[in-house]
Automatic annotation (TrEMBL):
Naturally occurring in which organism (per UniProt): Trichomonas vaginalis (strain ATCC PRA-98 / G3)
Protein name: I/LWEQ domain-containing protein
Top-rank lineage group of the source organism: Eukaryota
């Protein structure tokens, strides 16, 4: 009987440990409730054994009921644990898929971001001109947006959340927009006629990425929001900044 009590104590402790790692609140509640019922059933068995020694006539019937109750509670606890394991496996598989998608989106984004920095450095080394100032304005905003997006994507890759797929969407969208803009930057630096029109188109596309993302995903990451704000403010002040810088 002492060994039986030790085994029951160990089983209850293991179930409680398992409940602490459950990923769903309902499973946690079911396991802790199950543990309480198991303990109560075990106490009933101890009482029944005491009655056996006291030669109670109803011992056989009561003991059979207590045995069934304990078996049922243990079976329920095992079922809940198995269900929780399946849920954990599904979540792990989902997170793995999201992580792979984030990695896939990060690689081209980082490549484009590196090209943005190279273009920015090359533009800074040019002699002052209207074309240079237009290009610097756009390149600075592109750099802020790419760095902010990369930062939140790295964070999301390490800490998957409900917004992970939306961040992957954002990364892919930003990469596409930045890649398209590279050709326009070259045109501006080459002295295209009416560069302000080209810049306005670029700013509209960058601002569109920021506004659509802010509207739909509930992003709260400060670094990314700051990058978005830089782009949106830059869109409204770009022309004046260029004119004053080139003078």
């Amino acid at each position: 009987m002492v060994n039986y009590a030790k085994a029951m104590k160990a089983a209850v402790e293991q179930i409680l440990r398992a409940s602490a790692t459950m990923t769903t609140h309902s499973n946690q509640n079911m396991l802790t409730t199950g543990v309480s019922n198991i303990v109560n059933s075990f106490k009933s068995i101890l009482t029944i054994l005491r009655n056996r020694f006291l030669l109670r006539e109803d011992w056989a019937h009561i003991s059979a009921e207590a045995k069934r109750s304990l078996e049922n509670e243990l079976s329920t606890a095992i079922k809940v644990v198995n269900e929780a394991v399946e849920i954990a496996h599904r979540e792990e598989a989902m997170n793995d898929a999201v992580t792979k998608r984030l990695r896939a989106a990060l690689k081209p984004l980082m490549t484009v971001a590196s090209k943005v920095d190279s273009q920015l450095q090359a533009a800074q080394e040019r002699t002052s001109s209207m074309s240079r100032e237009w290009a610097l304005q756009v390149l600075s905003l592109r750099s802020a947006l790419s760095k902010g997006t990369i930062k939140i994507m790295f964070h999301t890759k390490e800490h998957p959340s409900a917004n992970s797929n939306k961040y992957a969407d954002l990364g892919e969208n930003v990469t596409q927009q930045l890649a398209k803009i590279s050709a326009d930057i070259k045109k501006i630096l080459a002295g295209v006629d009416e560069p302000e029109k080209t810049v306005i188109g670029i700013m509209d596309s960058l601002a569109g990425v920021c506004q659509n993302t802010q509207k739909g995903s509930g992003i709260e990451d400060q670094a990314l929001l700051e990058a978005f704000n830089i782009v949106l403010k830059g869109k409204s002040s770009c022309g004046g900044s260029v004119t004053s810088s080139a003078k």
